[in-house]
């Protein structure tokens, strides 16, 4: 029997993992549910099959170690998360665990070891669905886990620490889950792009330059409700049209700069009715960019334009900032080695920022990070059952990661 | 004791009527509820006190007749509705019944009669709240009552005909409620403006030129949902921004023409979230104008612009027309006599269209109509407890109506 290609193994195992869901018929696998624990056990099996030693830390992370030529060598880290959003796609996160396991399995068959160890981490929690707190797994490993979140409750009213205890994890050991910087060489995360850029440019993989910083606002517009038939246009204080004008300003301001995006994702006219001039509108603003300066300049312009629009339209605004995160840069020396690996596979090198957050963000406080994006199908749709990649791209990405690791030169 | 002014009587009786509500603490008086029947009885009392003969027709309308110099003379009709919306203002409709009763009471005290009878009609239903069918009272009198609505149910599941029977009204007599054209000279309705035009121009009353025609649409925009961080601006198919651009086009297209208004009253992004590019948006369009040509031209431009915007943004539109009504013109000969009455009171003459529908719309198929608008306070707010007028304006409007009727010359 011919050996299964790495691409095929990866696709098959991704399908296998997707059987473990809280909700039959759709993939939902949140932190420390039965489905989540089953997925963890499956990942551990595959790690062991590749001769990795497997441990689980107090956060529930699954960590497989493939020793180097000498024991206790410092480790190159890789991995991603195995929790999911509700009604998720199956590649988000999971690909970044299953893929390096397949690479290691091949080296293991070849009896090949490196001057460094490789640790593959299945991060137990990234999405923040169950406890409204994100990056739990990677923060535990980076030593930045916030103990305050242990008191957060899920929808059933169970605290995170009770849920952890019931699953056999002792939150008092969370500190010991933190890696020591001196044992770590770097972190590289393989992840689906979750967007259409590589698809549209016909590139199987891309090098992430940075995880974009983000600013978010929740805005309420207060205008004056009125009868749609009896209030002349010139006398209106239409809250919805003020929101519309602001939205289009954001869209225009954030267009034309390739690394900048701005979105009005939530837009509501409470109690809206066909025959009423809206007196109130609520919307969100989400602005992201690779460069914090570019983002801050856009935010400043948007806030300024909002005030001018509000003044001209005689409406008032309540503006609440709900989120602010700086950009996290991928290390140039790792990007270079990744570019060499991609070029060495005969592929074009495409750099792009990641607009979405990833475990690598949290790991960046522990060690230098890199990310390899893999092309999505279906217009780049993600967090949705239609999320997809091809087996060919999985194979290509695995080949690129293998080449990167085989040629990996730790920073001096 | 000094005689109470007509303005004071009107304000006091409006307050009196407002006690009759289905909901303590707020005014809601829908068709044939106990509150509605009590209000009808009160109106009948006030009519009788002014020496009017009172009858109720099969639709529940309260009709008071003040005979002319000779019995059975053809009648000048006036009146408005005494049902209300939920959490209503107390002047909408009610003013147009209470006000002419006060005028007639004065003539009755003076022993004054005219060569024509005057009939004051309290229309039992205009707003359409209970059975989702509007203008029931005026349509019965115009002979255009649609028998199909008798089978409509209220929220308790009672059919209109059962509710009518329980209140002592026989739907089989609805045909007999229709007035004969030869017995009628004209109809004039006094009504609050329900808008801010007279208030902003400091005019106590205005002459309605026409009840605007209206076109309404419900539009669904289908774009493509995506991650707010990962889909570059140029690759987006944002349904909300398409709706925003269409909304602003409507606003701009309908501005600058004094008789034209265009409104996006409902605007929704289903399941909108800060970090998601909206894949779907739903909104309404309401376009009204005094001139049907002006309205149709605006609607055509809006539909055209929508297609262009949709094409450019690569989104698709489902456009459903939900309403289409032609403009109803107020008779020029009645407008002239109303202008004479206003000028005769030393007041400036202001013409304006009515963007809202009124009982006069239905009566227009029976006889020529006129409408006198009375200035609202509070920015012209209506259908709301803050709806208000001043006693002084009530007095002024009563004086104008009295002068109009005293000098009324039937069309030859």
Describe the structure.
The structure is a homodimer of 412-residue chains. The first copy, chain A, has two domains: 286 residues, Aminopeptidase; 113 residues, Alpha-Beta Plaits, CATH 3.30.70.360. In chain A, helix 3 links the parallel strand 3 and strand 4. By secondary structure, the first copy, chain A, is α+β, with helices and mostly antiparallel strands. In chain A, 33% of the residues lie in helices and 22% in strands. The model of chain A has no long low-confidence stretch (mean pLDDT 96). Chain A contains eleven helices and 16 strands. Chain A starts with 5 loop residues before the first helix and ends in a 6-residue tail after the last helix. In chain A, strands 1, 2, 3, 4, 5, 6, 14, 15 and 16 form a nine-stranded mixed beta sheet that branches. Chains A and B meet through strand 7, strand 8, helix 7, strand 9 and strand 10 of A and strand 7, strand 8, helix 7, strand 9 and strand 10 of B.
Q: Which structural traits does this protein have?
A:
homodimer, 412 residues, alpha+beta, Aminopeptidase, Alpha-Beta Plaits, 2 domains, nine-stranded mixed beta sheet, five-stranded antiparallel beta sheet, 16 strands, 33% helix
Tell me the layout of helices and strands.
Two copies of one chain form a homodimer.
Chain A: H1 6-18, H2 34-49, E1 53-56, E2 62-66, E3 75-81, H3 95-110, E4 117-123, H4 136-142, H5 160-166, E5 184-192, H6 197-201, E6 205-211, E7 213-222, E8 226-227, H7 239-254, E9 260-263, E10 267-268, E11 276-277, E12 280-289, H8 292-313, E13 316-325, E14 328-329, H9 332-344, E15 351-354, H10 359-363, E16 369-374, H11 391-406
Parallel strand pairs in A: 3-4, 3-5, 5-16, 6-15
Antiparallel strand pairs in A: 1-2, 2-4, 6-14, 6-16, 7-12, 7-13, 8-11, 9-12, 10-12
